[in-house]
Amino acid sequence: MADLLPAPGFHEAFLAQVDTRPNDVALVWHRQETTYRELYEMASKAGAQLVGLDLGPDEPVGVLAKKSPAAVALVLACLLAGRRFLLPSPALAERTLTTLFARADCRYALVPDSDPIPIPPASGPPALRVVDQTDVSFMLTTSGSTGLPKIVPLSQSGVDRFVAWAADAFDIGPGRSVLNYAPLNFDLCLLDVWTTLAHGGRVVMIDPAYAANGYHLLDQLTRHEVHVVQAVPMFYSLLIYGVVTRDPERVFPSVEHVMSTGDAIPDCTLEQLPALFPSARLHSIYGCTETNDSFVHEVDRDTAGKSGPIPLGVPVSGSKAEIVGADGAVLDGSGMGELYVSTPFQTTGYLSRPDQDHRFVPHPHGWDDRRYFRTGDLVRRDDNGRMFLVGRSDFQVKVRGVAVNTAEVERVLLDHPEVDEAAVVATPDDLAGSVLRCVVRRTPGSRLNSLTLRGHCAKNLPQAAIPTVLRIGDEPLPKTPTGKVDRNAVSFPDVSPTARGRVS
């Protein structure tokens, strides 16, 4: 496909909506509606925080905010002021947040309706800069499954191109309502929130506190006549198994586009989507924080959930992809290898992480001048040219749409002074994608309990990486002939609903 043409800037596009439709609803939060004029006024008020700080012309700020209209206004204030900002998950441990803000050179973290928080400078040598930041707006973070989350700076021009593509691909514009399920720090919000606001639509925001409440999700979809839904598979599973199975006649006829992203959707869930959304086109989207959406596959409504694995689909407009074998050669036909992707929206590299430069590479054979991102995903291409995800080239899995590395979870557990051995495995789950099961051997004489160990995990891991089911014991874990813990021989706790969150 041809490269995308230059897109109008978000700044100008949003202000045009304020000028032309000031009284249209921009945000819906529970039963509270915020118009475009009101959102602009909120952003102007939030922007006063920026004016009152002694910031240099190119100095970034941190934004520490749970999703809410005030949080959207605060991010909007940064965008309208042309101020770079780091937007991490507020669920990260305080120590991790402080480190991330410092590494991004943020002296202040902005908080909705509160005073800015001073950030102490990073300890040690100055952080290295490995990307050009002159065009950067959003700075998002990866999940941190392999340690400290990586900072992903996105260019404003790349965001503008994405916003233009998404609006056209999914009919987002005036009079359209788009459901926003993801937390504000997720890259999914580039479509749910920022594309919608740039094109005059209405964002129906789901409060994270109610994200697992199927009845609340049903109420929001019904009450606000949503047209576009993008969410991780857990959202659809919650709707189906939490509510709709008790009301088989329930449908959502207003929805015209349904997108599943972040993880593979279970066949049993996918099979029920055509009946649940009788007017919708069904899409499976593949992407990552570093590249944003890369592939889109439109699912056949007649065979949804009945025709085997879903292919990746076709690259989005302006994107290219290659499959690279273990020998470093690009595969021409069928076969399996690592997926390399290049999109018009991608970052040029991680901030302050030269050790990760190997993830951003030129074309393996020099066939074009693009930079490609090594996704770490193993894919298989069949004789018909369709590509399918096979797995990860490491220990990474998805939990509620968040990438988690089981080896890193084990490392954190072993960092506790009263843990001698640890084993973690991921088990498929219809709701969460995967759940983590863990067995720990504590040190002799220790009285380590689950409350203490979960507190240790909470300080050092993102929420999704904390094991769902945990067993603490005193017996040695089984070993392989080389002396390593044999996960295949470990007896892990079950993951039945009554066992979740329990220790033995």
Describe this structure in words.
It comes from Actinophytocola gossypii. Residues 16-351 form the AMP-dependent synthetase/ligase domain. Residues 408-484 form the AMP-binding enzyme C-terminal domain. There is one protein chain. The protein is an alpha/beta fold and 504 residues long. Among the domains are: 320-392, Roll (Luciferase, domain 3); 396-473, GMP Synthetase, Chain A, domain 3 (2-Layer Sandwich). The chain has 12 helices and 25 strands. The chain has helices spanning 10-20, 36-51, 69-81, 94-103, 156-169, 189-198, 214-223, 233-242, 267-270, 273-276, 406-415, 450-460, and strands at 25-29, 32-35, 61-63, 85-86, 108-110, 117-118, 136-141, 151-155, 177-180, 202-205, 228-231, 257-261, 281-288, 292-299, 314-315, 320-324, 335-342, 360-362, 371-381, 387-392, 396-399, 402-405, 419-429, 433-442, 469-473. The strands form 5 sheets. A 9-stranded mixed sheet has the order 2-1-10-9-11-12-13-14-15, with helices on both faces. Strands 6-5-3-4-7-8 form a 6-stranded mixed sheet. It is globular, with a radius of gyration of 23 Å.
Number of helices: 12
Mean pLDDT across all residues, rounded?
Answer: 88
Radius of gyration from the alpha-carbon trace, in angstroms: 23 Å
Q: Strand order, biggest sheet?
A: 2-1-10-9-11-12-13-14-15
Structural class: alpha/beta
Strand content: 25-35%
The level of helicity is 10-25%
Described by its quaternary structure, the protein is single chain
Q: Which spans have pLDDT < 50 for at least 5 consecutive residues? A: 1-5, 497-504
Number of strands: 25
Relevant CATH superfamily of the domain at 396-473: ANL, C-terminal domain
- Say what the CATH topology of the domain at 396-473 is: GMP Synthetase, Chain A, domain 3
CATH architecture of the domain at 396-473: 2-Layer Sandwich
- Please report the first level of CATH classification, the CATH class of the domain at 396-473: Alpha Beta
Apparent shape:
globular
Please report the distance between the alpha carbons of the first and last residues. 55 Å
Region (Disordered): 475-504
Domain AMP-binding enzyme C-terminal: 408-484
InterPro entries: AMP-bd_C, AMP-bd_C_sf, AMP-binding_CS, AMP-dep_synth/lig_dom, ANL_N_sf
Domain AMP-dependent synthetase/ligase: 16-351
